[in-house]
Specification:
Layout: H1 2-24, H2 40-49, E1 61-66, E2 72-78, E3 81-84, E4 91-97, H3 102-117, E5 122-128, H4 136-145, E6 150-152, H5 155-168, E7 179-184, E8 187-193, H6 198-211
Parallel strand pairs: 4-5, 5-6
Antiparallel strand pairs: 1-2, 2-3, 4-7, 7-8
């Protein structure tokens, strides 16, 4: 009788143990991997702080710029390196502007100040876009404003340069003016959309000079 009782207990233990094993392996008890939540706003912010985007120009470019006083400058673009020939300063500040744009005209005296103050290390390069290059108003505006830095009058190269940079800066093709892009030894450093205080640009120039 005792043997049958013990045998009954053993069978019960086997049955309960088997049930526990099944319960332990259900989906509710298996640790689930947390789904990755992507913060699109954060991604947009981070990519903008870098160059721009990870896209490279599909081909190499060589652009020729001629200033109002016929000084020639060549720009070679290869793998996000912007090599400005004939420019000895380590920092190049490219200013895309139009003479009919009031904020653009408002930046001129500030760029004059920066060019004069940092002439050994800074080269300000004005790139005219969306302007009538043959217009007397344009010539009068430039003359009246007494621009003390390089202004390119090469219409084709000016617009091609803007077209190349826009996607690199994650901007639409018809971006708002003014737009300034700072390069240090041919590499992108930062850029400014719209009107910005002279002090902000100067702060970035000083920071760049500390790093080179």
């Amino acid at each position: 009788m005792k043997n049958k009782f013990y045998l009954f207990l053993i069978i019960l233990l086997i049955i309960f143990t088997s049930c526990d094993d099944k319960i332990a392996t259900t989906d509710e008890n298996i640790p689930q991997k947390k789904s990755m939540v992507i913060d699109k706003n954060n991604i947009k912010k981070n990519t903008k702080e870098k160059l721009i985007t990870t896209k490279h120009p599909k081909k190499n470019y060589r652009l020729y710029f001629k200033s109002l006083d016929n000084k020639l400058t060549t720009l070679e673009i290869k793998d996000d390196i912007y090599n400005f020939s004939n420019i000895i300063q380590p920092i190049v500040l490219v200013n895309f502007f139009s003479t009919w744009c009031p904020p653009c005209r408002g930046q001129i005296p500030h760029l004059n100040n920066l060019q004069k103050k940092y002439e050994k290390n800074l080269f300000v390069m004005g790139i005219l876009v969306h302007d009538d290059f043959k217009s007397k108003k344009m010539a009068n505006c430039i003359s009246f404003k007494k621009i003390d830095y390089y202004i390119s009058r090469s219409k084709r190269s000016n617009h091609l340069f803007a077209k190349i940079l826009a996607p690199q800066l994650a901007l639409r093709a018809n971006f708002e003016l003014p737009l300034m892009v700072m390069f240090v030894y041919g590499e992108y450093y930062t850029h400014y959309e719209g009107t910005v205080p002279e002090e902000m640009i100067e702060s970035d120039i000083k920071q760049a000079l500390k790093e080179i």
